[in-house]
Amino acid sequence: MSDTLGIALRLLAVFVVFLVFPLVIGQTEHKVMAHMQGRLGPMYAGGFHGWAQLVADGVKFAQKEDIVPAGADRRIFQLAPAVALLPYLLVLIAIPVGPHGAVGQVVDAGIFFVLAVMGVGVLGSLMAGWASANKFSLLGGLRTAAQLLAYELPMLLAAASVAMAAGTLSLPGILDAFHWWWVPWQIVGGAVFFTAGLAELQRPPFDMPVADSEIIFGAYTEYTGLRFALFLLAEYAGIVVLCALTSVLFLGGWHGPFGLNGLGWLWTLLKTAVLAFGVIWLRVTYPRLREDQLQKLAWTVLIPLALAQIALTGVVKVVIS
Amino acid sequence: MTLAATAAAHGFLSPTGVEIAFLLVGIATLGAALITVTTRQLVHAALWLVVALGGIAVEYLLLTAEFIAWVQVLIYVGSVVVLLLFGLMLTKAPIGRSPDADSGNRWAALVVALASAGTLVWVVVDAFRATWIDLDGAVQGSTATLGRTLFQYWVLPFEALSVLLLAALVGAIVLSRKGGEGKAPAADLRSGAARTGTAPREEQH
After folding, report:
1. How many Å lie between the alpha carbon of A200 and the closest alpha carbon of chain B?
2. Which of A27, A104, A186, B28 is least crowded, fewest Cβ atoms below 10 Å from its Cβ?
3. Contacts of residue A168 in chain B, CB cutoff 8 Å?
4. How many CB atoms lie within 10 A of CB A203?
5. Which residues cross the membrane (chain A) (predicted)?
């Protein structure tokens, strides 16, 4: 019976993280962007520095009318937000936050599980883009697909490099095998992974699929109310997942620097938060890449770098064994 | 892979929960596959294909082949279907029925499909009829087991497949370059070929 209770508690914890962390990152983005641009950002909702702004936004979204365009493919249009959001919830289950089994569920082929399920989330954008019966949405969907096909490969290759280094595909197993010198060893792979992940999430500077000055809001143009909010939530949940994965795979997760491992899960949270701050910072700093620049970056820079990283990993692995 | 051959202890008349789940998922997968080939709406067909491929991944999971299941999701649901949808969007797939989404070859296709399905079912049943997976022991389809088997006993077929996929990749590039020899659109075609090449390239890993 305690087993069942333990599993239920773990799943509940993952669900709470899934509900809370994206909102925290969204609020941080409001404030960080505002201060970087010399503004204050939300200041009134909730009293203290507008902390409840996103809650108020959620209430606003829930009140709006849920409109499905007349020419749209109703079922697929309505299903798309769920397909976009749920994969991130599933991925969170497999990400370890601390030592001694602090993970929702140990998955034997953890890296493959998280990358596979994250890839499914993009189907939501494609469904939304096609089913909206809107040329801007369709263009957004096309760009999403092209971007995914280009950036999935470097992401996989970079993750494969870590798996080679650790000799296992399980995420807790990778953390158990971690040593501090892995960070400089795998740093190129880490950069490739993080960049490709940003592109998969369609975050600036890789937000060509939702380029608001050209195609309004890409695949999400026709969405209103709660379904639109679910797409936004999927983006922020994606940031949580990408940052947590990068910190687990490339920055040592719950291992602290100089052997300070005592803090455990706090290190994971800290690294994730710093990376998420970086994601926001990139959005404020860099202009959007053009479609051809996007493709060129993936095929001529990221993939060769990822392959070089795999070669380096193989050579070092053979030398030290 | 060595499967626990303890057929004597098992019977077909008292199925376990896992076996019932396996059957139900199998029926759902078959249904999704049937809708995939019969629906007149092209994009719906691609999306039902997602359901069918996902169902097969669940079947792999129930057979304790975890690694294969996730690779199935990663390659087929994550890449091949995205490629299909990308192609459909480029060809202006309409919302609603496509009047020309039919083929005169439907009866020939049915015969071929039934024949290949019959052959596969017969081979699999004949090979594994009395074999049962021991769910209580160590996981038999784990990544470590699979990797060891693949690179010790099956390494030659594996490499042959890699060469085959490489040949397909080169062939795709050659075919797509044929039209625009030396003209400006050649660059576009080249990047298009590289994109189409993603799926087979990934399958090598």
Report:
1. 12
2. B28
3. 143-144
4. 19
5. 6-26, 76-97, 109-132, 153-175, 181-199, 228-252, 264-285, 297-320
